[in-house]
Amino acid sequence: MVAYRIDRRSGVATYLQIVQQTKQALRLGLLRPGDRLPTAREVVAATAVNPNTVLKAYRELEREGLVEARRGLGTFVRRTLGAAPADSPLRTELEQWAERARAAGLERDDVAALFTSVLDKHFEGNQE
């Protein structure tokens, strides 16, 4: 099951953070078809967000065909995204790179900007 982390200072709407974190879990293979998402009540208890915010996020995921709500049972994953499992050798390489970047004195925003520029270069026109 996914555990949502809400960053109230990020400037990103709370429901979008839930959507983004769910999609990330789908891409990494942490969520698979048939898995149940936490109930709105569970998310509210863990994050102190409004239940309507959680439901809005789940409706957006449902609209995109990623999950389906089953009355009285919960919300379940319909399909996955991407092909980058959490235990991928590429993840290990990226972790090592991030450690080197931090050791070199780069801040999180510096690393994000650098990484985004590389992504933009290599995946131009391939963005969501």
Automatic annotation (TrEMBL):
UniProt KW keywords: DNA-binding, Transcription, Transcription regulation
CDD domains (UniProt xref): WHTH_GntR
This protein's record includes keyword Aminoacyl-tRNA synthetase: no
A GO molecular function held by the record: DNA binding
Domain HTH gntR-type: 12-80
Pfam families per record: GntR
PROSITE patterns listed in its UniProt record: HTH_GNTR
Domain of life: Bacteria
Matching SMART domains: HTH_GNTR
Record-given protein name: GntR family transcriptional regulator
Source organism (scientific name): Streptomyces glaucescens
